[in-house]
Records
---
Amino acid sequence: MSTSKGKVFVIGLDGATFDLARTWIDEGRLPNLAGLMREGVHGELASTIPPISAAAWASFSTGLNPGKHGIYHFRQHVPGTYRQKIATGGDRKGKSLWRILSDHGKKVIVVNIVMTYPPEQVNGFLVSGLDSPGTGSNYTCPAELREELGQAVRGYVIEPDLAQFARRDRYDLVYRNIISCLEARNAAVEYLLDKYEYDFFAVNFRATDLVQHHFWKFINEAHPLYDEAQAREYGHCIRSVYEKLDRIVGELLTRCDDQTTVVVMSDHGFGTDSARTVYLNRWLQEQGWLSFVGGGDEGGGLRQVFGKIEQGARGLLRKLIWDFARQHAPQGLKDLLKRELPDLTNTLKSPTTYHAIRWAQTVAYSDEHRSNIWINLKGREPEGIVEPGAEYEALRDEIIERLRTLHDPETGTAVFSEVYRREELYPGQQVGVTPDIHMVLTQDPLYVSRPSRSAHGSGSVATLTPKQLSAGWLISGRHRPNGVFVMKGPGIVRGRALTGLSIMDLAPTILTVMGHPVLDSMDGRVIEEAFTSTPEVRSEHDDSGEEPSSNGGVYSEAEEDEVADRLHGLGYI
């Protein structure tokens, strides 16, 4: 068949999950989503590993796995250091879907997709998303669109600051700000639709992600932080956001003609947080692979031991003070702290969990915000002690073998469902930005990797009390790997449920729908079973895989602090 050459309209519902939506569809609460499912195809959409928005949206936009596009998480290791930086869309390799379409002369409008800052030059309009510092930055293409949106849309923000209200238990204000941001985002979409023509339009509404992060404890009686009184007050909030977005989807559908293919998707799913915890650096210490400062007698007497304890404690204290100041202090005070403490910058840019590690006696470590392990490799890490080659591979094999047999001592449950060498999971020339070992935490019941500095009691696997859980983390809902996918349009099968879908499949499928070749570098496939007859799939050679979308280094220190605050409040770093 000849595939449709019409328009494509993508509606992202960040973090939306059929685990919730199916019940509300059956109850008639989401009529527009239900109608799309009847008129088209639908299925769960596998996210990246881990199911984190930075990697997932980069895979959506390129059709590539993180080993090729180079975005594994919001934080990236700085080569040759133990420091990390906040990743941006400028670090992404490979051509985006909208870049490809622009090169073919198509008009594109892209709004609020994660990992699109700084904005690429496109044939149309691009409004950057979560990795933008704020509306004071150059977050639009063309640049003059920033002022235009500022005048046309009242209250437009990149991301609402919800953590300040959640810390005070003011969930009424958390919810109010989520809705305010959603309404402004939709107003921006309507403005762009009213004023400009497009061949491809993509928007991401982050309200689903935000409300689920903060309000999941109010809908799950088994949640360790469930409170009946608060559930009566706030238990409707997640459903209300889904219902409001369903109405927005319905309004957007009225703007699409019968030759427009509509895609509704999410970058990952969602589920409850859990008190079940693994402390990876503590586990590595138990296995003899990591040494904490002051964690053992290394000779030289008590003076040397206490000296190292003091050294590690000072680094940790600086970091903890800065984390507090970063969230609560004005920018002027932050700048003063950096000027008065010359060595602060390196301290701030490395994870807190690193400051108590004795690197000279450590062969493996984790940043513990993700379920991963790095080898302290000679020639790569500044104080690496593991020889590349046979020693590296033997150590990695042994760590993987023990990870696969790690069980919760209380329940006997395996902590990890899968363990991968990085090249097995993410083949590609950018695999070096990812850790040496990737683990998938067991999902049911859920286990969460948390920093060893926050550990209570002894042991590397623990179940936190409600008090311990609420003291350390604001969020109550966490990402899951099962996103949503719905597509309807000319030449698309009606009412068919699909399986085996990946977020990397969307870019090649959309290109095929629009009659354009699929880049041969893409890891995703065309979802041929979604079409009424076999689509014509053409291929085009791509040799741009090593080219970043920008030159990187796009943040000032103040801007990086702002983005870090945002990600910290969401539990991402």
---
Amino acid sequence: MLSAKNVMIIGSVIVIFVILQSILILFSSKVNSPAEAAVEFTKAYFMLDGTSMTENLCSEISEGEEADIVGGYLFHAAEQARAMGFSPGYMKNQLSGVQTEINLMDQNSAKVRITGDRLRSINPVFAFVGRLFFLIETHKFDETLTLVKEDGKWRVCGKPFSLSEI
């Protein structure tokens, strides 16, 4: 049988372990790689998250002559949804099976090929039920993104997806 002293020691060790594990997870999630930045931007692009898209674009695009390129993209997506008789949320897509392949050009620039499937994401229940009963049509995507390192963070540059064509 364990004495009260042993139980206290074991409990303290467990608490310390949990705290250290939390700290490690917190710091490991802050690592920014070209692949992580590409996935984060791609998720934001297909979920129509303008704030995240802008945060992950390089200054050349976000502050260039076409200053509101993200706003233009979101407006265009909303117009497409309205033309089909839906709200803008209908155009959101969830990603599945995302894979990345990094081709570093140098320490401050990289090309990342990102592939996967996207499916309508009107709400999480719709996506779950649709997958469960094979009701959702998936669409493959395959894009090569150019990323640059600005202020210590990888950001998407160049012509990501159709963003610059709208």
---
Amino acid sequence: MGRLKSLLKPEVVAAVDREFFESEGYWIWEGVLTQEGRARWTKSLQKLQRMNDEIVVDTDWTSIDFERRGLPSADPDKVTPEFLAACCGGSEQMKFLQPGWRVYMHDHGLFGPGPELVTRGYPSQGLMPEYFPGAYDAFILDAVTAHPQMMELFQKVLGERFVIDHCLMLNRAPGSGGRHWHGHPYRDGSREVEDPIGTNASLTREFLREQCVRTLCYPEGADDEDGGDFAVIPGAHLYRIPFKWSTDRPDHDDDMRAGWLRGKIHAFTGEPLKIVRLSIPPGSMVSFVHHIPHHVGSRKPGAPVRWGLLMANRTPDHDADPTRWSSGVPAHWAQRNAAQISEVARRVLAGDNPTDPLQ
């Protein structure tokens, strides 16, 4: 199946309010997907979740020689059929993974000689579909790296050149716990002016140009009716605090109001910062900057899966070491597929300071 030309509604992309995005820290692309685009996006996420589940339950994790790779072996209690079945159906549920496995799959790929990931008739890419879905789905890969309408959308919030930081499935299964309040740093956090708790000292009206913008696509929507809704604190990004990015994240709404939010104001209005729960209609996306604290609600038992894709892109770090591929790209996958990667996609997948010249 070829590229879907009419993936997005151009008038929704064109209507972005850049001033609002910079001052509030987020923007909802309400109803941006066309009817066919929404259907294709949902179908791909459902297929990818099925593939991820198949690899989880079909792979003989105890037979893979992790010790040879300098990694801990599988925990026998966590790779029983019953335990693995409970790791399926949604994202962030693979509790059987041992420390270092995910990073190894990203950096090297889990290939032979010897036992490796088991698939059902499609080539293994050496990693789980959840952690780099474009490796297993051409539609998602095109949307994330090359589709002209998506590239225009990303450029509205990032500027002309950006590189992929990471891309993950975020399918929330019934009963899943969501995520407590947290923020993120730019790259490895070495440029932060505040620690993960921070102070009120760095409040500014200046929009940070070294930016990582996360865009969540919810083809079937996200609200609090079934749980899994998304919340932000507009204006909080202007404190430049990567809130609890590297610590435990126990904070609920009441904790935030009683603690971290006390005394913090919006740099432009002077009003106290407030939590805003977003109701995101089907066929929509939301983009938000890396410093803005955000929260994902628990999915209610019995609710359908909330389908979601996280696409995180960043402005290039001009002080980064030259590399062929961005650190967010599994280099082993990119090397194997380099001949099929278009020039447009190569710009997104390339390193911050690419060793290969960009066209």
---
Amino acid sequence: MERGSSLRCYLCDTVLRNNDQSRSNHMRNFWKSSDDPTRCDNVQISLNRRIVTVPLITMPVEVDPVVSMARRRPSTWHREREVRSRYAVKQCEVSTVDAQDLTLIQNRWDEKLTELSQLNDSKFWRLFLAMYTLSGTAIDSALNVVKKMFMSEVDPKRFPISRRSLLEKMGTLTPFWPQVLHTTRIDLSRFELPSGTKEICFKFVDPIWGWLVAARRQHPLELHWKPLAQRLGRELYGQGIHCGQLFKHACASVPRGSFPMCVGLHWDGTGAHGLSSSPICVCVGNSNSCKSDTQFCIGYMPHVPDEKKPEWTKLVSATTVKWYIRQQCAAAILKVLEEAACRGIKCRLSNQHNEEVIRLLYPRLTSMNLTNLRRNVSSACRISSGARSAGEEGVAVHLRNAKDMTSRTYLVYL
């Protein structure tokens, strides 16, 4: 599509004027398959076969740079939403007998949010949610001052003055998270650690549930469920995930009437004030957005007590233990994704008309980024279909050190 008052169709080169209805009807061709005879470029090909013309070259042909030939022209956020709005996801019409039903969990989650909102005054929630990322001392000070100066008419029981009192009130409600938690134990007995640790526990939130929570934060027009049509012989990439071969292959791997749930799995290490952690997150791969609301933290990488001893961390065996723990954690998460990738997920998501419709989604792991805390190296493993048997088969991944450019090979279980 070109900029300006009028648009040009990249499939058939037809100039689309400002007639909203005709332009809207023509944009539906962007989401039709290449073998659809009603797609605009296929109709034009059939017409051109009747008339054979030989173009006359009267001036030198200007050769475009390779980049401009391979990538689409720059577009705008509003124009991309206009193109995306040409199709809407309808109610699931395929059999969901074997699919994992998460609609009941979604109902309980909505009920939990309603209970929390009724626990305190609405003015308290507006204030607290605007500063909940601050330190506990800052939150307590702000709540005390605001309540004394502006909230004297509010019921004291519905306006907590500290984060601790708020957590105590929330603790009286029925807990929700045990319904979506997974627990696995990692056997470390063969390493004979100095601390005597035989096993560690790894708890994580269901990655499917984390993906759904992040997906429900997105605007419906930000989520892609169909690949964008490509003109045969003139494929263009770079505008978004809906233009790439990975997303096209993921869509082709699911049953008709269902859609791919593109999942990204990644983790990285961070530290502050003498504390370190390695959060593990899943991201919504159906969106082109890189905002933080497309991510959901499902857990943290576990550690052994020996890591607190500097002399132990310098040993080669320490690195072996760390990578073994990470491999086992990845295997546990991928095992959950693998089961869902085979059965499918029944869930509710809003479409562009703000209607929550039941859909059948099949998880597809599209990226998994591995980061080494000590060497600052990373790699990405792409899987366009369901994961293999977690913990049984592995893939050799070559990681390059960013400092001295040395390479090492690791076995990643997928």
